[in-house]
Specification:
The protein is α+β, with helices and mostly antiparallel strands. It has one domain: Nucleoside diphosphate kinase-like domain (Alpha-Beta Plaits, 2-Layer Sandwich), CATH 3.30.70. It is built from 7 helices and 4 strands. Strands 2-3-1-4 form a 4-stranded antiparallel beta sheet, sandwiched between helices. The chain is globular. The N and C termini lie far apart (30 Å). The chain binds adenosine-3',5'-cyclic-monophosphate.
Length: 136
Amino acid sequence: MSNIEQTLSIIKPDAVERNLENEIKEMFKNKNFKIVKEKKIQIEKSEAENFYKVHETKPFYNDLCSYLSSGPILVMILEKENAVLDNRELMGATNPKDANDGTIRKKYGISIDKNSVHGSDSIENAKIEIDFFFKD
Ligand code: CMP
């Protein structure tokens, strides 16, 4: 039985600024993710606030939204079997200093804020996040 899923990935401003897009995309491709759609955009802070609404009560919410809207980002739909969980494994822990070797955040993350990538945390949120950026 096939278990093909899609998930949303964002290469965040700190990684785009350091020209890491292609290296990070290679890491996805090497783990058999197919990049179904991608676009490079810069979003308004109000859009970041909507995107990260689940975090609105958290103390880091304001900084997080300022940061995501501070520069260009690359948003992608990734597809493979078990894409949601496999992407989270490939990204590594939210805080790069806790991330395992071989993960994107271990390799490229600078701090818990500048952690280079975002990935959907559940199948349900993947659908919401994909719609957020790619609903035509
Ligand atoms: P991301 O996977 O994009 O989801 C929310 C982001 O909030 C997270 O990555 C981190 O970059 C950022 N963040 C900042 N502080 C924290 C914190 N204490 N716990 C979790 N996420 C945090």
